[in-house]
Write a structure and sequence with these properties.
This protein folds into two domains: 203 residues, Spore Coat Polysaccharide Biosynthesis Protein SpsA, Chain A (Alpha-Beta Complex), CATH 3.90.550; 99 residues, no CATH class. It contains eleven helices and twelve strands. The strands form two sheets. Strands 1, 2, 3, 4, 5, 6, 7, 10, 11 and 12 form a ten-stranded mixed beta sheet that branches. The protein has a two-stranded antiparallel sheet with strand order 8-9. Helix 1 links the parallel strand 1 and strand 2.
């Protein structure tokens, strides 16, 4: 079974070199390595080419979604791994994920700067069109050691059957960066396709190494793309939950000094979401309630964020 690894890159040569070293150490190595360069100027693609990668030049910063889609179109593997350039993999990462033979899978992502903390496990969404990267920032513990079926995984270090993209499509390039992986997961859910979270496969992620988690541009894009998620996958019956969730998220952004960027993103998202075409039916009540039950369960077990406490109280 052949495996293609795709890494979108925009600068970050030193981080990419660490990733390449961890790829070279895999017990189940990739048969093809594609570096999709979004216009790097620090020598990152040249270094990767010297180490045996095939470099695809986008010629500009086209965003994560466009870069990954280009890599998928040019890949030859039966399996496709999509990796952020700021991640490092345990030597058996690919071997463990491939052993499950699920349509898509991910492992446990730990923070590279604080390995006792979770960087991400899988994604869950609420009725308000806000996603939670489950466990992010929390201490690793037993609740994150359980294998479970999931509807959406971070594309930080994820594995996919190549034929999944023929059934569901590629990433929505209108998202550019942020939440495009969640939108893909919601499309999978609408097709009745689920993946798996395998905590025994471990990787370490720096997280927002390109811009920063609360950088104004990061916040603008997330705020805009939240509107896109609502427009593509939610019905009007969730208007109250959407209003609550989006307003609370704007308060979080404002607390981090990014309130204006959030407002810009929301206005942009509301204006441009009208032109989006729904990919199918809106998400079912049962699916969204099961997602909220999962969020509530893990928040309860690991101490509620004030955001989610307020959201559940108000909705």
């Amino acid at each position: 079974m052949s495996l293609t690894a795709i890494v979108p890159v925009w600068n970050g040569r030193d981080l990419l070199e660490r990733l390449l070293r961890s790829l070279e150490a895999q017990t189940r190595s990739a048969s093809e390595l594609l570096i999709v360069d979004n216009g790097s100027t620090d020598g990152a693609p040249e270094m990767a080419r010297d180490r045996g990668a095939r470099v695809i030049a986008m010629g500009r910063n086209a965003g994560f979604a466009a870069a990954v889609n280009r890599g998928i179109r040019e890949s030859r593997g039966e399996w496709i791994a999509v990796l952020n350039s700021d991640v490092e993999l345990a030597p058996d990462y690919f071997a463990k994920l491939l052993g499950e033979d699920a349509p898509f899978a991910t492992g446990k992502l730990l923070s590279a700067g604080a390995p006792h903390l979770i960087d991400g496990t899988f994604d869950a969404v609420c009725r308000g069109a806000v996603a939670w990267r489950v466990g992010q920032g929390r201490p690793d513990g037993p609740i994150f050691a359980k294998r479970r079926p999931v509807s959406s995984v971070p594309w930080t270090a994820a594995l996919f059957r190549a034929d999944l993209f023929e059934r569901v499509g590629l990433l929505n390039e209108g998202f550019q960066s942020y939440l495009e992986d969640v939108e893909f997961g919601l499309r999978c859910a609408s097709h009745g396709i689920s993946g798996i979270y395998m905590p025994e496969a471990v990787a370490w992620h720096r997280g927002s190494a390109t811009l920063g988690r609360w950088h104004p541009e990061t916040v603008r894009r997330i705020a805009r793309n939240q509107c896109y998620l609502a427009a593509l996958h939610y019905s009007a019956r969730h208007a109250w939950q959407i209003a609550v969730a989006q307003s609370l998220w704007a308060l979080v952004a404002a607390r981090h000094g990014a309130g204006w960027s959030c407002l810009r993103g929301k206005l942009e998202g509301i204006r441009s979401a009208r032109g989006l075409r729904k990919s199918g039916r809106s998400l079912s009540r049962d699916f969204l309630r099961s997602q909220e039950k999962l969020i509530y369960e893990i928040q309860s077990a690991t101490k509620f964020d004030w955001y989610w406490r307020l959201y559940f109280w108000l909705t």
